[in-house]
Write a structure and sequence with these properties.
Layout: E1 2-14, E2 17-19, E3 26-29, H1 30-36, E4 43-48, E5 54-62, E6 69-72, E7 84-94, H2 95-98, E8 104-108, E9 114-118
Parallel strand pairs: 1-8, 2-6, 3-5
Antiparallel strand pairs: 1-7, 3-6, 4-5, 4-7, 8-9
Amino acid sequence: MLHQMMKAKLHRATISAADLNYEGSLTIDTDLLKASGIRPYERIYVYNVNNGERFETYAIEGEAGSGAIQLNGAAARKGMIGDFLIIVTYALCSDDEVDEHRPNVVLLNPDNTIKEIVK
């Protein structure tokens, strides 16, 4: 049997920009992608803490060190600059893998710098 487990999480990312006319996705600072293990173009689940919106899209790389968390395209309607997001990916684990599985959790400061990495 396969179990869908949390693979990675960026906790309390702050929306830094939104571009309704961009062709979709969520731009994330490359440093945050690397710290969390989220890969470019990977499906991500996004939960807006401020308004309760929940949606899925894919991650694209933003400039390293920029703190970029930018809603693009239709996703730009799902939040406002300053809103807090929880960005999550999931992975399938077998019965043999599930007990040893540990997600990468990156806790963020309001300026999208890394506060703590929990593994």
